[in-house]
Write a structure and sequence with these properties.
Layout lengths: L18 H14 L3 H11 L8 H14 L3 E7 L1 H4 L8 E7 L7 H8 L5 E2 L2 E9 L8 H9 L1 E5 L3 H14 L3 E6 L2 E6 L2
Parallel strand pairs: 2-4
Antiparallel strand pairs: 1-2, 1-5, 3-4, 6-7
Helix pairs in contact: 1-2, 6-7
């Protein structure tokens, strides 16, 4: 972004707030396993400010909301495109996190497919509807997403908190990544 002076924006600015708000933000960031800076940037980005002008984000969030309504709690991009390992035929995987009251069934995918194809940076977007796992279970999908996912939307911050718990389990060695015949999988450490 270019400033009024014609110079590029630095990406930094000073923000003054009450000490109570500062403490609350710091506590929320710590609970999410994020730095205060990252927490605030994500909050601003998912508040609607970060999607202004980005047609790919607007299309993705809009379609997800059209399919599941207010049950939409989060969106994370993951997979080979995010890892920088995409082939010319790779799509972009979008994990669409919905409330537990939404039944995960073929009707969700049919509703998604009933509208025109959505692309992310020129690649077909492939949705995966999921519930947020709240019992501490860590699947291979959540491990991959925790390491390489790009959170685009996190309505109530439970998604970021869950991803932080998964990252801590990986860092502590409680969950490990293995590869068999070139295919990775995750398992609890023995």
């Amino acid at each position: 972004m270019i400033s009024e002076t014609g110079r590029p924006k630095s990406g930094r600015f000073v923000l003054r707030m009450s000490s109570a708000l500062h403490a609350a933000l710091e506590g929320a960031a710590r609970a999410s396993g994020l730095s205060l800076n990252t927490y605030c940037v994500r909050h601003l980005a998912t508040s609607g400010l970060g999607i202004v002008g980005d047609k790919d984000v607007t299309s993705l969030v809009g379609r997800a909301h059209a399919v599941v309504g207010d049950a939409l709690t989060g969106i994370v991009l993951h997979g080979s495109w995010i890892r920088g390992e995409a082939t010319p035929n790779s799509d972009v995987d979008a994990l669409i996190v919905v409330g537990s009251d939404v039944e995960l069934n073929r009707a969700l995918y049919s509703a998604w497919d009933s509208a025109p194809i959505i692309e992310w940076r020129g690649r077909r977007l492939d949705p995966h509807f999921v519930h947020l796992v709240e019992d501490g279970e860590i699947s291979g999908l959540w491990a991959e997403v925790a390491l390489d996912g790009m959170v685009l939307l996190d309505r109530d911050w439970k998604l970021s908190a869950h991803l932080a718990r998964v990252r801590r389990a990986i860092a502590a060695g409680r969950v490990v990544r293995r590869v068999v015949h070139g295919h990775p999988y995750w398992k609890e450490a023995a």
